[in-house]
Amino acid sequence: METVNGEWIMKCCDPDDPERLRTPQELTALVHKLGFLPLFSGEIPGFSVEERTAADAWWTGDERTDPWEWRKLLAEDDGIAYGKFFDKKAGFVSKEWFPVLANFRREGYDFDALYDDGLVSRRAKKLMDALAPGEDMRGLSLLTPVLRDRAGFGPGGEKNFSGVLTELQMRTYLLMGSFRQRTNKKGEGFGWHIAVMETPETKWGYDAVAAGYAEDPERSRERVFRQVRTCFPGASDRAVRKLLDRKRP
C-alpha cells in the first residue's frame, strides 16, 4: 500500500491478470515457490500478496477469496511461518527457508545466549520467559493480550509491548501461530480474531529451526538475498536490504 493525499491506496492487480491469486491454495504454492512473501507491497515491484490479488477481494470476510482471511489459514499451515519478518511488516516464510533466515537474523544465537551477552533487552526476555519453553524447546501459544499481561506489560507495567513484540519477530524468535477470538465464561468466541504468539520452536521443534546454525550467518544472509534477487531480478540492492536486513540500511 501507499499513501496518496493522506489516503491508503492498494497496489492490487487487475482482476483479469493471469497471475492473480484467487485461492489460499494458490498463495500457499507461491510462498513455497518464492520462499519469502510480504503481505503488503514495498519497494520491490510484485513482491507481495497485495500486488497479486484484486482490490475487491480484500476485507470481505470470505476466507475462500479474501487475502486478509488467508493469512489466518496460512499461519496455521505446518509448512509456513507468518509474522512481522519484512521491515517490521507482516509476511510469510516457507519452512524450507525459515532456518536460513533464522540463522541470519539471530546471528547464530539462541535467545538465552543473546540475552546473556547483553544483545537484547530485559523487556524482550520477559516476553520470551512468559512463553516458557521446556526441555524440548516447545513453549506456550498465547493470545497477544494474554502474553502482554503475563509478561508484565499491562497497565502500570512495562512499556512498548508492540515494539518489543515486533523486534522479536524480526529476529525470528517469535511468530504468529494462529488467530483466535477471545472467549467468554461460557467458552463462546467474541470480537476480532487476535494473533496467537509462539516461538518457531513451538511450531516446528528446536532441531528444525536450528538446522541452519552450522552455517555462517553471513552465508545465510547471502543465500536469502540471492533467493529474492533470483525471483525479482529488477529489485535494487537498497530495496532488498531494506526488506530483508533486520536493521534498515
Q: Which sequence of strands runs across the widest sheet?
A: 3-5-4
Question: What is the tally of helical segments?
Answer: 11
Let me know the number of strands.
8
State the helicity in percent bands.
25-40%
Main sheet, how many strands, which sense, barrel? 3 strands, antiparallel
Radius of gyration: 18 Å
Helical/strand content category: alpha+beta
Strand content range: 15-25%
Order of helices and strands: EEHEHEEHHHEHHEEHHHH
Shape: globular
End-to-end CA span: 21 Å
Uncertain runs = none
Mean pLDDT: 93
Walk me through the structure.
- It contains eleven helices and eight strands.
- By secondary structure, the chain is of the alpha+beta class.
- The protein has a three-stranded antiparallel sheet with strand order 3-5-4.
- Helix 3 (98-106) packs across helix 10 (217-231).
- It is globular, with a radius of gyration of 18 Å.
- The model has no long low-confidence stretch (mean pLDDT 93).
